[in-house]
Amino acid sequence: MKLSALYKTLDKSSRESLAKGSGISPAYLYQIATQWNGRRPSVDVIGRLLRADSRLHAEDLISEFSTAFSEWPELKEHQMHDPKDTDKIPVGPTDVITKGGRA
């Protein structure tokens, strides 16, 4: 079961109990369960949630909180592309490179 689905079924005291059992605040539990402002739990918090409630399953939480690499704007600049001549870094004179580092 996904956290978002479980959260909807819990009353206030059950939510507080799940948060306490996971070592997080009820407010943070709300934020990650609703993905408020894009909030996602760390791997550590996911593990604690799994241990706190047997209705949660790792596969569901991973699919709920994972995003395709291409959707992460902060990583787009690191995606692979074909190098251009301007991307190449000169490392030394050509004759040094072709002779195994000896001039």
Query: What is Rg?
Result: 23 Å
Overall 3D form: elongated
The major beta sheet can be summarized as:
none
* Number of helical elements: 6
Fraction of residues in H or I helices: 40-55%
- The strand count comes to 0
**Measured distance between first and last alpha carbons:** 65 Å
Protein name: XRE family transcriptional regulator
Describe this entry's structure for a reader.
The protein has 103 residues and is mainly alpha-helical. The chain has a domain at 3-67. 49% of the residues lie in helices and 0% in strands. It is built from six helices and no strands. α1 crosses α3 and α2 (12-22) crosses α4. The longest helix is centred in the first third of the chain and has 11 residues, at 12-22. The chain is elongated.
Give structural attributes.
mainly alpha, elongated, XRE family transcriptional regulator, about 50% helix, 6 helices, about 100 residues
Briefly characterize the structure.
Residues 77-88 have a biased composition (Basic and acidic residues). The chain has 103 residues and is mostly helical.
